[in-house]
Design goal:
- By secondary structure, the protein is of the alpha+beta class.
- About 55% of the residues lie in helices and about 20% in strands.
- It has a 6-stranded mixed β-barrel with strand order 2-3-8-5-7-6.
- The two termini are about 30 Å apart.
């Protein structure tokens, strides 16, 4: 076997141009598959990252009116609904026990609809009414002051924790701790400032830089016991869950939603769900799957053309080496030896083309990611399948020439001019 491999490399070296042109179809086909799979996997990973909050693998399950599938129910405009203003504690505990969910916390949340004012400065921000169990979920570090305490909840204290972006907007270089701000209808005292830990390994472009450094992270947190007074109405809670594995986002969030929906008295009109994002994820997943199959199918045509080229060159090689084959047979070489020699040469030729195609595909995929500013994920499985597929092409398309060589009559082969 080793001798056949060495003979194959010797034959490739002696006909460099012909071998390179023969491998070209294989190289293009394998490179195209690697590029396509890498881009699609990258797009899938970006989608998963967008579905979870601040890289903490958190998903928010909100209350929806079934007549409006895309926006959570707004109690400030539509009024509260009896029985669903708060999520029962036993439901939160039940959700924590579900497979794939590590933590859960009920919160009030408003996106840029509540204003924080300090003297002449003001800022609209994402506002949260939270419990003690939410703080471990938020993925932020305390940079100044303190977190909430149980006494803040028991005494209904109007205290607030703000992000470093809000602190910079409202207080410039001053410490905000102890300052009083107006939030909604109430006055709150700032007791803490939080920041997001920076993962420099995730910074590959300007967008990553802004996200990781918390630029634009304008948020405030207050105890849930003070939320409704500040908002001026009885708001409806959402549930934040932490997913253990991003691949189980849809399954875990659906299971959590079912637990909450079991508490509703009007399930035909309202529901808890993680928004349209998970539904879109399933739809996009199917689109990506179909697109991937189509594109890989198109790339496979290149492999087919390359395989035909391999067969053609191997037939030419058999014709050129007819006297050599006849001599080997006359010296006692068996059919399987001749068959193995030519089949090995075909497999080595296509495998070498496959490896070159993999390297080119990885390089181009990375280059596209840098130029376009998107994530590309190199799949080890796709590489293994591609190399295996190229070897398979060598076996399939090298079989006919190899059989032809093995079946040559030694006398006729020796007399071949």
């Amino acid at each position: 076997m080793f001798e056949n491999v060495m003979l194959s490399f010797r034959g490739i070296r002696s006909h460099k141009m012909r071998s390179a042109l023969t491998m070209l179809g294989i190289i293009i086909g394998i490179a195209a598959i690697i590029i396509i799979v890498s881009i699609i996997n990258g797009a899938s990973e970006q989608l998963k990252e967008e579905m979870v909050g601040d890289s903490t693998n958190t998903v928010t399950i909100s209350f929806f009116d079934k007549n409006d599938k895309y926006q959570p129910y707004d109690a400030s405009n539509n009024g509260p609904i009896t029985g669903v203003t708060t999520i029962p504690e036993e439901c939160v505990e039940q959700v924590k026990e579900l497979d794939g969910i590590s933590e859960a916390a009920a919160i009030y949340c408003k996106e840029y609809s509540l204003e924080v004012k300090y003297l002449s400065q003001s800022a609209y921000c994402t506002s949260y009414g939270v419990g003690l169990d939410y703080l471990p979920l938020c993925g932020k570090l305390l940079s100044e002051g303190r977190f909430f305490t149980q006494r803040d909840y028991d005494d209904h204290n109007n205290v607030m924790i703000i992000s470093d972006s809000i602190a910079s907007s409202l207080f410039n270089n001053e410490s905000p701790i102890g300052k009083t701000v107006q939030f909604g209808n109430e006055l709150f005292t700032i007791v803490g400032v939080v920041t997001k830990p920076v993962d420099y390994s995730e910074i590959e472009n300007l967008s990553d830089y802004m996200i990781n450094l918390g630029i634009g992270d304008k948020s405030v947190m207050v105890p849930y016991t003070s939320w409704n007074d500040a908002a001026g109405y009885d708001d409806i809670q959402s549930l934040v869950i932490r997913i253990e594995d991003r691949d189980n986002i849809v399954t875990a969030s659906t299971a959590a939603s079912e637990v909450l929906n079991a508490t509703l008295t009007e399930p035909d009109k309202y529901e808890y769900k993680s928004g349209s994002l998970t539904e879109d994820a399933e739809y996009l997943k199917e689109i990506m799957k179909i697109t991937s199959m189509l594109l890989v199918g198109i790339a496979s045509i290149s492999l087919l053309v390359g395989g035909i080229g391999v067969m053609n060159i191997m037939l030419v090689s058999v014709t050129e080496r007819t006297r050599e084959i006849g001599l080997k047979k006359a010296l006692g070489a068996k059919r399987r030896v001749i068959l193995g020699q030519f089949l090995t040469e075909s497999v080595v030729l296509t495998s070498l083309g496959g490896l070159i195609g993999v390297l080119i595909g990885i390089g181009i995929a990375k280059l596209i990611g840098v130029i376009v500013g998107m994530t590309t994920v190199i799949s080890v499985g796709a590489i293994a399948i591609s190399v295996g597929f190229s070897m398979g092409v060598g076996i399939i398309f090298g079989l006919v020439p190899s059989i032809k060589a093995a079946n040559l009559n030694p006398i006729d082969a020796l007399r071949y001019e």
